[in-house]
Write a structure and sequence with these properties.
- It contains 14 helices and 17 strands.
- The protein is of the alpha+beta class.
- The chain has an eight-stranded antiparallel sheet with strand order 1-4-5-6-8-7-3-2.
- The termini are far apart.
- One of its GO terms (cellular component) is plasma membrane.
- It catalyses: a 1,2-diacyl-sn-glycero-3-phospho-(1D-myo-inositol 4-phosphate) + ATP = a 1,2-diacyl-sn-glycero-3-phospho-(1D-myo-inositol-4,5-bisphosphate) + ADP + H(+).
């Protein structure tokens, strides 16, 4: 008993010390995770304020109306708002003058509330409760800037105008896919907007989900299934604060996704469906973002929310019966059949005929997200389905790059220097097949043929 009290005192002392350090860092506007708090006086404060003011007004106005079935016009809708210090019948007064455009608000409202199960009030409080965001200090490779909500649940990402046009073009297909696949691994878009300052340029941005919890992922990988230029220097990784490693690092470190028979089969089937969508809309250059967290033996129940800075996403868990098999069937085959039967949009009965699930069932399934039910991620499991001391955080990102003329020219140029089938820019169908095959070979526990495991990189 005395030893238990001593351990609790030590943990409380560490927690207070960490909170004091975080408070001091926040005063300086710098955090230890490569992000900077945007407050008044920051160079991007006006932009952030305008973004959040526009989001709060648009989401509130749309949410105040009675829900109704979507129409084709809803996918093309654009609502414009003008903000100034005086306010008007459509917008409240604001600190600065700016213009704001909200794209397809009814579509994104339905995605948020019915399929991603985001409470409107929580959404606004998380983003606009304190009018503060965390800015990632290093922008993305594409030049996009990333801003995180205060609780790190949501990301605001600036995008190029061609990306915003492409998202609008595929929005109906994206919506249908999410509706039929509530467990999709593809990035979750919660809103598409544009802000314009007086005499300034137009900035398009999306609000999306944050795959990773705060400060808890010890390894990150960005996997495309390509080999050319897909290695982060290990000597540089050893010195970097939070490096995102690539395909060749994954291979050389001997990593694999240990998901067990049942979850592995579910993950593989969902990834196949997501890849089929991306091939159908001519998208390439996307990747599977993988975060790996090691569960500490002495703090399994509190490891993700100890510091109070991370919203703990814990959807209701799906209750499943133990996998049963018929005579002559292997456990792996039974797991795959169960994956196909239970995953949306089609439930396949024993006779092999498919039956479509109802929208109510799809919405309920979204609330029990299969790939986020273990502390916001997916618990690693061995070949017998027993939990291991790791949690995976998984998502398919960067889905707004079509295989267009620019990518075709890039394919020709890089194909002159390297094997044209191993470079990143390849046609959408070839890209999707290569991507899926690479990830599939790196899933352990689904009961693949021995030779497939032998061929895995």
């Amino acid at each position: 008993m005395a030893q238990a009290h001593q351990i609790r005192r030590e943990r409380e002392s560490k927690r207070r010390h960490q909170e004091e350090q975080d408070a001091e860092a926040e005063k300086l506007g710098v955090k230890g995770d490569g992000m900077q708090v945007i407050g008044e006086g920051h160079v991007n404060y006006v932009l952030m304020y305008n973004m959040l003011s526009g989001i709060r007004t648009c989401v509130s106005r749309c949410g105040a109306k009675i829900s109704r079935p979507l129409t084709d016009d809803d996918f093309k809708a654009r609502h414009k708002f003008s903000f100034d210090i005086y306010g008007n019948e459509l917008t409240p007064s604001a600190k600065y003058d700016f213009k704001f455009k909200d794209y397809a608000p009814w579509v994104f409202r339905e995605l948020r509330e019915n399929y991603f199960c985001i409470d409107p009030a929580d959404y606004l409080v998380s983003l606009t409760g304190e009018y503060k965001l965390n800015e990632l200090l290093s922008p993305g490779k594409s030049g996009s800037f990333f801003y995180f909500s205060k609780d790190l649940r949501f990301i605001i990402k600036t995008i190029h105008h061609t990306e915003h046009k492409f998202l609008l073009r595929i929005l109906k297909e994206y919506y249908t896919h999410v509706k039929q696949n509530p467990h999709t691994l593809i990035s979750r878009f919660y809103g598409l907007h544009r802000v314009k300052l007086p005499h300034g340029r137009k900035i398009h941005f999306v609000v999306m989900n944050n795959i990773f919890p705060a400060d808890k992922v010890y390894e990150k990988f960005d996997l495309k299934g390509s080999e050319v230029g897909r290695e982060y220097p290990e000597e540089k990784a050893a010195l970097a604060l939070d490096p995102t490693l690539k395909d060749l690092n994954w291979i050389k470190r001997g990593r694999s996704l240990e998901l067990g028979p049942e979850k592995g089969a579910l993950f593989e089937e969902q990834l196949r469906r997501d890849t089929e969508l991306l091939k159908s809309v001519n998208v390439m250059d996307y990747s599977l973002l993988v975060g790996i967290y090691k569960v500490e033996q002495d703090a399994r129940d509190t490891h993700l929310n100890r510091r109070g800075t991370m919203y703990k996403f814990s959807p209701p868990q799906i209750k499943r019966k133990p996998t049963t098999t018929s005579k002559g069937s292997s456990p792996e085959a039974a797991a795959m059949r169960k994956a196909v039967r239970t995953s949306a949009p089609e439930r396949v009965d024993a006779s092999g005929s498919g039956s479509r699930i109802s929208e109510e069932d799809a919405s309920s399934a979204a609330q029990a997200d299969l790939f986020h039910e273990d502390e916001g991620g997916l618990r690693a499991r061995d070949d017998y389905g027993q939990p291991l001391e790791r949690i995976y955080y998984l998502g398919v990102i960067d889905i707004l790059t079509p295989y267009n003329t620019r990518k075709k020219l890039e394919h020709l140029w890089k194909g002159l220097q390297h094997d044209s089938h191993k470079i990143s820019p390849v046609p959408a169908v070839e890209y999707g097949n290569r991507f899926f095959d690479f990830i599939r070979r790196n899933i352990r526990g689904v009961g693949k043929v021995e030779s497939s495991n032998a061929e895995a990189p």
